[in-house]
Design a protein that fits this description.
- About 12% of the residues have low confidence.
- Strand 3, helix 3 and strand 4 form a beta-alpha-beta unit.
- 31% of the residues lie in helices and 19% in strands.
- The strands form 3 sheets. The chain has a 3-stranded antiparallel β-sheet, covered by helices on one side. A 3-stranded mixed β-sheet has the order 3-4-5.
- By secondary structure, it is an alpha+beta fold.
Length: 206
């Protein structure tokens, strides 16, 4: 189940198909293209990741009963969420993202309810940005540049449905919220990919 939250509160609740019809979200434009990262198989971190994935896959092939298929958002989401108050300035939001080394954060109102999503990609100035305008923007509230309304997802939602929303919108992740809009967690593309690499079987097709 998906909901859409804005500065006036929850504006929609329903299925993925209904959300597409009621609240179309345009694909997000990237601030800049990312160069592909070439990993050296000899790199220790890469080797550890590959070893973990191979070991987990082998366990599933051998019928490891300790593992179960991952199907729901709550099984792969990050539950320690860094949120940005809607009264924060753009500079404060930027510093919060940098401090915690994250690329996005939910924006919440005074009651802790979801109202938007702040993306680090939107805070990167282009070479043509006027310094005076950039300085002025940093002093504005995050509500002036956050994404709103923004989709939120219930903890028991099928991971496949979330993956489809990420593809449809181009967003890097979705806040996980309860019926009142309180933020419970965050599920990102990285969380889904990490589950694929480390925790098979990830039940994407049944």
């Amino acid at each position: 189940m998906f909901s859409v939250y804005g500065i006036t509160g929850r504006v929609f609740t329903g299925t993925l198909e209904q959300m597409r019809e009621v609240t179309p979200v345009e694909r997000m434009a990237r601030a800049r293209a990312l160069a592909p990262v070439q990993r050296d198989p000899a790199d220790s971190a890469y080797g550890t990741l590959a070893d973990d994935a191979n070991r987990a896959y082998t366990q599933t092939q051998q019928g490891d009963t300790r593992r179960h298929a991952l199907t729901r958002v709550q099984e792969v989401m990050t539950d320690k969420v860094i949120s940005v108050p809607h009264t924060a300035t753009v500079m404060q939001g930027w510093r919060l993202l940098a401090q915690h080394a994250i690329g996005q954060a939910p924006v919440v109102d005074a009651q802790g309810a979801l109202v938007g999503l702040l993306l680090r990609a939107d805070l990167l100035p282009s070479p043509s940005t006027d310094p005076a305008l950039w300085s002025a923007m940093l002093g504005q509230q995050v509500t002036s540049i956050m994404w709103t309304p923004v989709p939120g997802v219930a903890p028991d939602t099928d991971i496949r449905r979330v993956a489809q929303v990420l593809l449809d919108t181009g967003l890097p992740g979705l806040p996980v919220a309860d019926e009142a809009g309180a933020v419970l967690g965050f599920i990102s593309r990285s969380d889904i990919l990490r589950a694929v690499a480390h925790d098979p079987p990830l039940d994407l097709w049944t």
